[in-house]
Amino acid sequence: MEVKKAVIPAAGLGTRFLPVTKSVPKEILPIVDKPTIQYIIEEIVASGIEDILIITGRNKEIIINHFDQVPELEFNLKIKGKNAELKMVQDITDMANIFTVRQGEAKGLGHAVLCAKEFVGDEPFAVILGDDIVYNHDNPALKQMIRVFNEHQTSVLGVQTVPHEDVSKYGIVQGKELSDYVYSVEDLVEKPSIEDAPSDLAILGRYIITPDIFEILEHTGKGAGGEIQLTDGLRRLAKRQKMVAYDFAGRRYDVGDKLGFLEATVEYGLRTPGLETKFKEYLKNLDLS
Ligand code: G1P
Q1: Residues in the ligand 1 pocket, defined by CB under 6 Å
Q2: Rg (alpha carbons) of the chain, rounded to whole number
């Protein structure tokens, strides 16, 4: 089986970024000049997947608009001869086939993924969370995971080691090393306490999942935080069939967190052609006294 579809849950309320998320979805907040969700979609496309489902909710229309044509803007850029800008704008529309479904009620990540059942059908699929942006210029994190899926033909969780004091922010994997960077998943726990965490291997917003998850999610009740948790569904799936975790290579940013967002902004700023030299100079000379 091949991974041909990806799902991006984007129905969350973005409470960690209030007040701006009162009116602007967090997925649209820019890192330098690109909305965070565009980085996610570019990673998916660079990994060879073109059919992408975005799970949205109230006040999220602007996300979808970003991937539509804007005829008056394109006309304007054309008559002004701004060809590079015109191509940039058009490329965003041509990049992928974007589909949407609405999650009527924010009942948790597991419930959001269940909303993708009709779109996915009976195939393995990728899930990428918008809070986790991973920079790997040569080999996108999802592409690395697809390689692991192709080898093992079973669900793959994208993980990295996090500082022990941070384990309660994540789904944590208990695994046994199978080969370099690949673990067999023996158990999973969503946001454990520091004392109960079975390891420091955290799921960082990237999954390839077999379609068997849907039937399980249909019967998964509320878990941590009173929400239907994807991790709880995956835990049951791991008891039924082999599941692996893959420690992917790349610099990961938690852009759902203010500090992580600022780190991403600074580091992507330093990677932006035409901006990097002056921005570096500015940072070197920064003195707020
Ligand atoms: C979600 C998942 C969690 C995962 C995390 C990665 O949590 O439930 O298992 O480790 O994303 O960012 P959230 O950050 O939405 O609370």
Answers
A1: 109, 129, 131-132, 170-171, 190, 202-205, 229-231
A2: 19
